User: What shape does this take?
Amino acid sequence: MKYRLIEAEKAEHSVSRLCKLLGVTRQGFYAWRRRGPSLRQLGDEELKRLIVSVYDGSHAIYGAPRVWLELADEHDVHVGRKRVARLMRELGLQGVSRRGRKPRTTVPAEKAPPAPDLVERRFVAERPNALWLADIERHEALSNRAVVKGHRLRLVAAGR
Assistant: This one.
């Protein structure tokens, strides 16, 4: 990482100053420049090509776990699942997931009339216990579970 920063900033500052600032030697920087890609980088490039072919073969549906399994089963390539996940992230590949969606229990009719306004927009009661209001269908009230329907209160379960 430090050597890449030196390579990027050497046009603006001297290599000696950058190496001193980052705590590395100039000889180390120049040796890094002469070196080719590591075996891991070369293997990652080959593995990326395989991952793309498996991913495209699944019609862009498979995620990292399934790609990893198919690499082991069909292509006899045994690598770590997290390595496959990292390479898929680098390639911008993502599987399709059906999780996370809440089931839709109530489908409103398109032309359904709105609920009647029983309070008639007057939110002040003349006497205690004459008017109950709520914005939600269920709420916890003084450790009693209450269900609010319209403007009446019906106790469902007492205590916890």
About this structure: The beta strands are 138-141, 144-149, 152-158. The chain is about 40% helix and 10% strand. The chain has a mean pLDDT of 82. Residues 13 and 35 are 23 Å apart (CA to CA).
